[in-house]
């Protein structure tokens, strides 16, 4: 079977973040009114990332085409992070989650993060 997709982890070998991923998430959560600290978010991010990677390996690009776009994969990962054990309930509607996700996603598209 020919290889159709190869993913490469390039952080922190080729690309560096100015702040750890969990710190970016934590700042966003605090901005949106969640009472969290960096250690709590670090554990939640690890849980969310691993859970999403198990559900949708290779960032959702698989033989079954589970997720069409990588942004969908990150949306699931952020959702799993927010709902990780030990995290406070957000009580957000779908629209409120979308606003939060867009904020976090745009942070990683910003030169201030890289």
TrEMBL record:
Taxonomy, superkingdom: Eukaryota
GO molecular function, one term: hydrolase activity
InterPro entries cross-referenced by the UniProt entry: HAD-SF_hydro_IA_REG-2-like_cap
The entry's keywords: Hydrolase
Protein name: Haloacid dehalogenase-like hydrolase domain-containing protein 3
Species the sequence originates in: Perkinsus olseni (Perkinsus atlanticus)
Gene (UniProt): HDHD3_5
